Amino acid sequence: MNLLLCLGFLLFFLWALKTSALAQRWRDWRYLNLAALCTLALLALWRIRAGIYEGLDLHFLGLTVMTLMFGWRSALVLASVAQGILLVAGVDVWGNAAGLFWLGIALPVLASFGWLTLCHNLMPRNLWIYVFVGAFFNGLLTFIIRTTGLGLWYTGQYDWHLVVDNYLILIPLFVFPEAMLNGFSTTMMVVYKPDWLATWNEREYLTGPK
Known about the structure:
A two-stranded antiparallel sheet has the order 1-2. By secondary structure, it is mostly helical. It is globular. It is built from nine helices and two strands.
């Protein structure tokens, strides 16, 4: 089952790559360098983790800010590359590859983009909504969704009570720092590097829709 799910994700990955900004801007070295640096940043961030049992370890994600920067397709591709490197390096176990790709990357990236879309369509379009709801709260919500999804995956290997006591119970310790990571990073880019944010529209978020 793990292999079949991985093959399914590979097809999804290739489709996302083909339709992503990465494929459209493959000659833009400045953009590709930024993408490569962000992928390395994810690697470093995901390598620092806390946990006792194999697989039941938590780390900060940064997937919300990646989605805000690159859009969901490119964010999914870059995060998948980072996760693939961790699997090859032996940091993560191949037996959990399907769960890590589908529930650890695809689910949070799509959830993050979906929440941002809801904010964009249902709430006032201004700087504070973009930063606090679209980035800060989005990062918090995305972390909860990802961790809960992987927690359900790990119940196939561990007893439910063990997963709760050694994995899910740690969510409150991580959600606020995760929200700060995404919110603060997004704020800095809005101020200094707005062109790095694919989902930022200065005309709409600073002056309102015309």
